[in-house]
Protein backbone atom coordinates (compact mmCIF):
# COMPACT_ATOMS: atom_id res chain seq x y z
CA UNK A 1 0.00 0.00 0.00
CA UNK A 2 1.49 3.33 -1.12
CA UNK A 3 1.33 6.25 1.33
CA UNK A 4 2.57 9.76 0.57
CA UNK A 5 2.90 12.21 3.47
CA UNK A 6 3.09 15.93 2.74
CA UNK A 7 4.44 18.77 4.93
CA UNK A 8 6.66 16.26 6.68
CA UNK A 9 9.44 17.95 8.59
CA UNK A 10 12.31 15.78 9.90
CA UNK A 11 10.58 15.53 13.30
CA UNK A 12 7.31 14.38 11.63
CA UNK A 13 9.14 11.78 9.54
CA UNK A 14 10.90 10.49 12.63
CA UNK A 15 7.64 10.09 14.59
CA UNK A 16 5.69 8.56 11.67
CA UNK A 17 8.38 6.14 10.47
CA UNK A 18 8.76 4.85 14.02
CA UNK A 19 5.16 3.60 14.16
CA UNK A 20 4.06 3.02 10.54
CA UNK A 21 3.83 -0.66 9.49
CA UNK A 22 6.98 -1.96 7.82
CA UNK A 23 4.89 -3.43 4.98
CA UNK A 24 3.67 0.03 3.88
CA UNK A 25 5.50 1.85 1.06
CA UNK A 26 5.96 5.31 2.55
CA UNK A 27 7.19 8.57 1.03
CA UNK A 28 7.78 11.54 3.30
CA UNK A 29 7.85 14.93 1.55
CA UNK A 30 9.10 18.13 3.16
CA UNK A 31 6.88 20.22 0.86
CA UNK A 32 3.26 21.29 1.27
CA UNK A 33 0.51 19.68 -0.78
CA UNK A 34 -0.52 22.04 -3.57
CA UNK A 35 -0.88 22.00 -7.36
CA UNK A 36 2.92 22.07 -7.81
CA UNK A 37 3.59 19.05 -5.60
CA UNK A 38 0.50 16.97 -6.28
CA UNK A 39 2.23 14.87 -8.93
CA UNK A 40 4.09 13.06 -6.13
CA UNK A 41 0.76 11.62 -4.95
CA UNK A 42 0.11 9.86 -8.27
CA UNK A 43 -0.78 6.23 -7.50
CA UNK A 44 -0.85 6.77 -3.72
CA UNK A 45 -3.97 5.17 -2.24
CA UNK A 46 -3.37 7.11 0.95
CA UNK A 47 -2.22 10.70 1.38
CA UNK A 48 -1.45 12.25 4.76
CA UNK A 49 -1.49 16.03 5.20
CA UNK A 50 -1.19 18.78 7.78
CA UNK A 51 -2.78 22.12 8.71
CA UNK A 52 -1.59 24.32 5.85
CA UNK A 53 -1.84 21.85 2.98
CA UNK A 54 -4.16 22.81 0.16
CA UNK A 55 -7.17 20.52 0.14
CA UNK A 56 -9.74 22.36 -1.96
CA UNK A 57 -11.86 20.91 -4.78
CA UNK A 58 -9.11 21.34 -7.40
CA UNK A 59 -6.52 19.43 -5.38
CA UNK A 60 -8.96 16.77 -4.21
CA UNK A 61 -10.13 16.14 -7.78
CA UNK A 62 -6.54 15.55 -8.88
CA UNK A 63 -5.88 13.30 -5.88
CA UNK A 64 -8.95 11.22 -6.76
CA UNK A 65 -7.89 10.85 -10.38
CA UNK A 66 -4.45 9.73 -9.16
CA UNK A 67 -6.07 6.91 -7.18
CA UNK A 68 -6.23 8.37 -3.66
CA UNK A 69 -8.95 6.81 -1.51
CA UNK A 70 -8.02 7.98 1.98
CA UNK A 71 -6.94 11.43 3.14
CA UNK A 72 -5.45 11.08 6.61
CA UNK A 73 -5.13 14.49 8.25
CA UNK A 74 -2.38 14.61 10.85
CA UNK A 75 -4.20 17.45 12.62
CA UNK A 76 -7.48 18.18 14.40
CA UNK A 77 -8.70 21.19 12.42
CA UNK A 78 -10.33 20.45 9.05
CA UNK A 79 -11.50 23.91 7.99
CA UNK A 80 -9.06 23.69 5.04
CA UNK A 81 -10.68 20.56 3.55
CA UNK A 82 -13.59 20.67 1.10
CA UNK A 83 -15.42 17.77 2.75
CA UNK A 84 -18.42 17.93 0.41
CA UNK A 85 -16.13 17.55 -2.58
CA UNK A 86 -14.13 14.74 -0.90
CA UNK A 87 -17.36 12.83 -0.30
CA UNK A 88 -18.50 13.28 -3.89
CA UNK A 89 -15.11 11.93 -5.05
CA UNK A 90 -15.33 8.96 -2.68
CA UNK A 91 -12.25 10.02 -0.72
CA UNK A 92 -12.61 9.15 2.97
CA UNK A 93 -11.20 11.82 5.30
CA UNK A 94 -9.91 11.00 8.78
CA UNK A 95 -8.16 13.19 11.31
CA UNK A 96 -6.45 13.21 14.71
CA UNK A 97 -9.19 14.71 16.88
CA UNK A 98 -6.95 15.59 19.82
CA UNK A 99 -3.21 15.15 20.07
CA UNK A 100 -2.34 16.99 23.21
CA UNK A 101 -4.79 19.50 24.56
CA UNK A 102 -2.26 19.96 27.38
CA UNK A 103 0.39 21.17 24.93
CA UNK A 104 -1.89 23.86 23.48
CA UNK A 105 -3.32 24.88 26.85
CA UNK A 106 0.13 25.18 28.44
CA UNK A 107 1.42 27.24 25.49
CA UNK A 108 -1.62 29.51 25.80
CA UNK A 109 -0.78 30.18 29.45
CA UNK A 110 2.84 30.72 28.40
CA UNK A 111 1.78 33.46 25.97
CA UNK A 112 -0.32 35.15 28.66
CA UNK A 113 2.50 35.16 31.20
CA UNK A 114 5.19 36.18 28.70
CA UNK A 115 3.08 39.12 27.51
CA UNK A 116 2.04 40.19 30.97
CA UNK A 117 5.54 40.09 32.47
CA UNK A 118 7.34 40.99 29.19
CA UNK A 119 9.62 37.97 29.38
CA UNK A 120 10.58 38.29 25.70
CA UNK A 121 11.76 41.86 26.32
CA UNK A 122 13.61 40.87 29.50
CA UNK A 123 15.53 38.19 27.58
CA UNK A 124 16.97 40.79 25.18
CA UNK A 125 17.40 43.56 27.74
CA UNK A 126 19.42 41.57 30.25
CA UNK A 127 21.70 40.21 27.52
CA UNK A 128 22.51 43.82 26.58
CA UNK A 129 23.35 44.71 30.16
CA UNK A 130 20.17 46.77 30.61
CA UNK A 131 18.68 46.00 34.01
CA UNK A 132 16.17 48.86 34.04
CA UNK A 133 12.61 47.91 34.97
CA UNK A 134 11.07 50.81 33.05
CA UNK A 135 8.36 49.48 30.74
CA UNK A 136 8.33 46.05 32.41
CA UNK A 137 5.38 46.59 34.78
CA UNK A 138 2.98 43.63 34.81
CA UNK A 139 -0.22 42.78 36.67
CA UNK A 140 -1.29 40.02 39.07
CA UNK A 141 -3.20 37.28 37.26
CA UNK A 142 -4.91 36.60 40.57
CA UNK A 143 -8.35 38.19 40.67
CA UNK A 144 -8.50 38.94 36.92
CA UNK A 145 -11.44 37.89 34.76
CA UNK A 146 -10.61 35.63 31.83
CA UNK A 147 -13.05 34.96 29.00
CA UNK A 148 -12.69 31.69 27.09
CA UNK A 149 -14.44 31.30 23.75
CA UNK A 150 -14.95 27.59 23.07
CA UNK A 151 -15.05 25.39 26.16
CA UNK A 152 -13.89 22.13 24.60
CA UNK A 153 -10.84 20.06 25.51
CA UNK A 154 -8.31 22.92 25.26
CA UNK A 155 -10.57 25.72 26.51
CA UNK A 156 -11.49 23.77 29.64
CA UNK A 157 -7.85 23.01 30.43
CA UNK A 158 -6.92 26.68 30.02
CA UNK A 159 -9.80 27.60 32.33
CA UNK A 160 -8.69 25.08 34.98
CA UNK A 161 -5.10 26.34 34.88
CA UNK A 162 -6.31 29.92 35.27
CA UNK A 163 -8.55 28.92 38.17
CA UNK A 164 -5.36 27.80 39.90
CA UNK A 165 -4.02 31.34 39.45
CA UNK A 166 -7.13 32.67 41.22
CA UNK A 167 -8.79 34.04 38.09
CA UNK A 168 -12.53 34.34 37.52
CA UNK A 169 -13.26 32.22 34.44
CA UNK A 170 -16.09 33.04 32.04
CA UNK A 171 -16.77 30.67 29.16
CA UNK A 172 -18.87 30.96 26.04
CA UNK A 173 -19.78 27.80 24.13
CA UNK A 174 -22.99 27.11 22.17
CA UNK A 175 -23.35 23.92 24.24
CA UNK A 176 -23.88 24.35 27.97
CA UNK A 177 -21.95 21.80 29.97
CA UNK A 178 -22.17 20.41 33.49
CA UNK A 179 -18.40 19.83 33.34
CA UNK A 180 -17.85 23.57 33.02
CA UNK A 181 -20.14 24.18 35.94
CA UNK A 182 -18.30 21.59 38.03
CA UNK A 183 -14.98 23.27 37.16
CA UNK A 184 -16.31 26.54 38.54
CA UNK A 185 -16.58 28.36 35.21
CA UNK A 186 -19.40 30.83 34.60
CA UNK A 187 -21.18 30.06 31.32
CA UNK A 188 -22.14 33.39 29.77
CA UNK A 189 -23.18 35.01 26.50
CA UNK A 190 -20.44 36.10 24.10
CA UNK A 191 -21.19 39.78 24.76
CA UNK A 192 -20.50 39.25 28.49
CA UNK A 193 -17.04 37.91 27.60
CA UNK A 194 -16.32 40.97 25.47
CA UNK A 195 -17.51 43.35 28.20
CA UNK A 196 -16.14 41.74 31.39
CA UNK A 197 -12.87 39.99 30.49
CA UNK A 198 -9.40 41.36 31.19
CA UNK A 199 -7.98 38.49 29.10
CA UNK A 200 -9.76 36.78 26.19
CA UNK A 201 -8.56 33.44 24.81
CA UNK A 202 -9.94 31.78 21.66
CA UNK A 203 -10.42 27.99 21.59
CA UNK A 204 -13.36 27.46 19.23
CA UNK A 205 -13.08 25.85 15.78
CA UNK A 206 -12.97 27.99 12.65
CA UNK A 207 -16.41 27.88 11.00
CA UNK A 208 -18.51 30.28 8.94
CA UNK A 209 -19.96 31.46 12.26
CA UNK A 210 -16.63 32.06 14.01
CA UNK A 211 -14.71 33.57 11.06
CA UNK A 212 -13.61 37.10 12.09
CA UNK A 213 -15.30 36.74 15.47
CA UNK A 214 -12.81 39.32 16.67
CA UNK A 215 -13.59 42.38 14.56
CA UNK A 216 -14.08 46.13 14.99
CA UNK A 217 -17.54 45.65 16.53
CA UNK A 218 -16.57 43.02 19.11
CA UNK A 219 -13.33 44.84 19.96
CA UNK A 220 -15.27 48.06 20.64
CA UNK A 221 -17.21 46.25 23.40
CA UNK A 222 -14.03 45.05 25.15
CA UNK A 223 -12.31 46.60 28.15
CA UNK A 224 -9.65 49.14 27.21
CA UNK A 225 -6.25 47.44 27.30
CA UNK A 226 -7.63 43.89 27.07
CA UNK A 227 -5.25 40.98 26.45
CA UNK A 228 -6.23 38.89 23.43
CA UNK A 229 -4.77 35.42 22.87
CA UNK A 230 -5.40 33.29 19.78
CA UNK A 231 -4.07 29.74 19.65
CA UNK A 232 -7.17 28.57 17.73
CA UNK A 233 -7.11 29.52 14.05
CA UNK A 234 -5.89 32.70 12.36
CA UNK A 235 -9.15 33.52 10.64
CA UNK A 236 -10.96 33.83 13.98
CA UNK A 237 -9.70 37.40 14.04
CA UNK A 238 -9.69 40.24 11.55
CA UNK A 239 -6.02 41.23 11.66
CA UNK A 240 -6.51 44.76 10.21
CA UNK A 241 -9.13 45.47 12.91
CA UNK A 242 -6.80 44.15 15.59
CA UNK A 243 -3.97 46.35 14.29
CA UNK A 244 -6.25 49.41 14.53
CA UNK A 245 -7.13 48.42 18.11
CA UNK A 246 -3.45 48.03 19.00
CA UNK A 247 -2.81 51.53 17.63
CA UNK A 248 -5.67 53.01 19.69
CA UNK A 249 -4.55 50.94 22.74
CA UNK A 250 -8.00 49.32 22.95
CA UNK A 251 -6.06 46.04 22.80
CA UNK A 252 -3.19 46.21 25.30
CA UNK A 253 -1.58 42.83 24.62
CA UNK A 254 -1.79 40.40 21.71
CA UNK A 255 -0.54 36.81 21.72
CA UNK A 256 -0.86 34.80 18.51
CA UNK A 257 0.15 31.26 17.65
CA UNK A 258 -1.88 31.30 14.43
CA UNK A 259 -2.29 33.84 11.65
CA UNK A 260 -4.82 34.05 8.83
CA UNK A 261 -2.16 33.90 6.09
CA UNK A 262 0.25 31.68 7.98
CA UNK A 263 0.36 29.14 5.11
CA UNK A 264 2.82 31.37 3.23
CA UNK A 265 5.13 31.77 6.24
CA UNK A 266 4.89 29.27 9.05
CA UNK A 267 6.91 26.07 9.41
CA UNK A 268 9.63 27.36 7.02
CA UNK A 269 12.83 29.42 7.42
CA UNK A 270 12.34 32.75 5.60
CA UNK A 271 15.20 34.54 7.37
CA UNK A 272 17.10 35.17 4.11
CA UNK A 273 14.06 36.56 2.29
CA UNK A 274 12.04 39.76 2.22
CA UNK A 275 8.69 39.04 3.81
CA UNK A 276 6.04 40.62 1.61
CA UNK A 277 3.08 40.33 3.98
CA UNK A 278 2.84 43.94 5.24
CA UNK A 279 0.01 43.17 7.65
CA UNK A 280 2.05 40.51 9.40
CA UNK A 281 5.13 42.73 9.45
CA UNK A 282 3.09 45.58 10.98
CA UNK A 283 2.03 43.25 13.80
CA UNK A 284 5.67 42.60 14.63
CA UNK A 285 6.39 46.31 15.14
CA UNK A 286 4.26 46.51 18.30
CA UNK A 287 6.15 45.99 21.57
CA UNK A 288 3.07 44.35 23.11
CA UNK A 289 2.60 41.66 20.45
CA UNK A 290 4.07 38.17 20.76
CA UNK A 291 3.78 35.75 17.85
CA UNK A 292 4.75 32.08 17.77
CA UNK A 293 4.58 30.06 14.55
CA UNK A 294 1.82 27.50 15.17
CA UNK A 295 3.94 25.73 17.75
CA UNK A 296 1.37 25.42 20.54
CA UNK A 297 0.84 21.73 19.75
CA UNK A 298 4.55 21.01 19.36
CA UNK A 299 5.54 18.64 22.16
CA UNK A 300 7.05 15.16 22.03
CA UNK A 301 3.85 13.70 23.39
CA UNK A 302 1.72 15.38 20.73
CA UNK A 303 3.99 14.24 17.88
CA UNK A 304 3.83 10.63 19.11
CA UNK A 305 0.07 10.81 19.48
CA UNK A 306 -0.37 12.25 15.98
CA UNK A 307 1.78 9.46 14.52
CA UNK A 308 0.00 6.69 16.44
CA UNK A 309 -3.50 7.93 15.65
CA UNK A 310 -2.61 8.38 11.97
CA UNK A 311 -1.25 4.81 11.91
CA UNK A 312 -4.45 3.50 13.57
CA UNK A 313 -6.61 5.47 11.10
CA UNK A 314 -4.71 3.95 8.16
CA UNK A 315 -4.83 0.44 9.64
CA UNK A 316 -8.60 0.70 10.15
CA UNK A 317 -8.99 1.71 6.49
CA UNK A 318 -6.68 -1.08 5.33
CA UNK A 319 -8.54 -3.70 7.35
CA UNK A 320 -11.96 -2.40 6.27
CA UNK A 321 -12.89 -1.54 9.84
CA UNK A 322 -15.08 1.43 10.83
CA UNK A 323 -13.13 4.71 10.53
CA UNK A 324 -13.51 6.09 14.06
CA UNK A 325 -12.01 9.47 13.29
CA UNK A 326 -13.73 10.07 9.97
CA UNK A 327 -15.25 13.43 9.02
P1 LIG B 1 -12.94 20.78 20.88
O1 LIG B 1 -13.75 20.30 19.73
O2 LIG B 1 -12.71 19.89 22.04
O3 LIG B 1 -13.58 22.15 21.45
C1 LIG B 1 -14.09 23.17 20.64
C2 LIG B 1 -15.23 23.81 21.41
O4 LIG B 1 -15.66 24.94 20.67
C3 LIG B 1 -16.45 22.88 21.58
O5 LIG B 1 -16.84 22.83 22.93
C4 LIG B 1 -17.51 23.53 20.71
O6 LIG B 1 -18.83 23.35 21.23
C5 LIG B 1 -17.08 24.98 20.76
N1 LIG B 1 -17.64 25.80 19.70
C6 LIG B 1 -18.15 25.41 18.50
N2 LIG B 1 -18.64 26.48 17.84
C7 LIG B 1 -18.45 27.56 18.64
C8 LIG B 1 -18.76 28.93 18.53
N3 LIG B 1 -19.41 29.42 17.46
N4 LIG B 1 -18.42 29.75 19.54
C9 LIG B 1 -17.79 29.27 20.65
N5 LIG B 1 -17.49 27.97 20.82
C10 LIG B 1 -17.80 27.12 19.82
O7 LIG B 1 -11.57 21.28 20.24
P2 LIG B 1 -10.18 21.49 20.97
O8 LIG B 1 -9.39 20.23 20.92
O9 LIG B 1 -10.40 22.16 22.28
O10 LIG B 1 -9.46 22.53 19.96
C11 LIG B 1 -9.95 23.85 19.79
C12 LIG B 1 -9.28 24.50 18.59
O11 LIG B 1 -7.89 24.66 18.86
C13 LIG B 1 -9.31 23.64 17.31
O12 LIG B 1 -10.51 23.83 16.58
C14 LIG B 1 -8.11 24.14 16.54
O13 LIG B 1 -8.54 25.17 15.68
C15 LIG B 1 -7.20 24.72 17.62
N6 LIG B 1 -5.94 23.98 17.75
C16 LIG B 1 -4.77 24.69 17.68
C17 LIG B 1 -3.55 24.04 17.79
C18 LIG B 1 -2.27 24.81 17.75
O14 LIG B 1 -1.18 24.19 17.70
N7 LIG B 1 -2.28 26.13 17.80
C19 LIG B 1 -3.49 22.58 17.96
C20 LIG B 1 -4.78 21.94 18.09
C21 LIG B 1 -5.96 22.63 17.96
* Unreliable parts: none
Overall outline: globular
Bound molecules: 1,4-dihydronicotinamide adenine dinucleotide
Q: What is the average per-residue confidence, as pLDDT, rounded to a whole number?
A: 97
Q: How many domains make up the coordinates?
A: 2
Oligomer: single chain
Largest sheet properties: 7 strands, parallel
Widest sheet, order of strands: 8-7-6-9-10-11-12
Order of helices and strands: EHEEHEHEHHEHEHEHEHEHEHEH
CATH class call of the largest domain: Alpha Beta
Strand elements, count = 12
Radius of gyration: 21 Å
Ends: how far apart? 22 Å
- CATH homologous group name of the largest domain: NAD(P)-binding Rossmann-like Domain
CATH fold field value of the largest domain: Rossmann fold
Structural class: alpha/beta
Task: Give a structural overview.
The protein is globular, with a radius of gyration of 21 Å. A seven-stranded parallel sheet has the order 8-7-6-9-10-11-12, with helices on both faces. It has two domains: 2-99 and 300-318, Rossmann fold; 101-291, NAD(P)-binding Rossmann-like Domain (Rossmann fold). By secondary structure, it is of the alpha/beta class. α1 (10-19) packs across α12 and α4 (101-117) packs across α6 (153-164). It has helices at 10-19, 57-65, 83-88, 101-117, 119-127, 153-164, 178-182, 190-196, 216-221, 239-247, 278-283, 300-318, and strands at residues 2-5, 25-28, 46-49, 70-73, 92-94, 145-149, 168-172, 186-187, 199-202, 226-230, 251-256, 289-291. The model has no long low-confidence stretch (mean pLDDT 97). Helices cover 35% and strands 15% of the residues. It is built from twelve helices and twelve strands. 1,4-dihydronicotinamide adenine dinucleotide is lined by residues 76-77, 98, 101, 104, 149-155, 172-175, 203-206, 209-210, 231-233, 257-258, 294, 296-297.
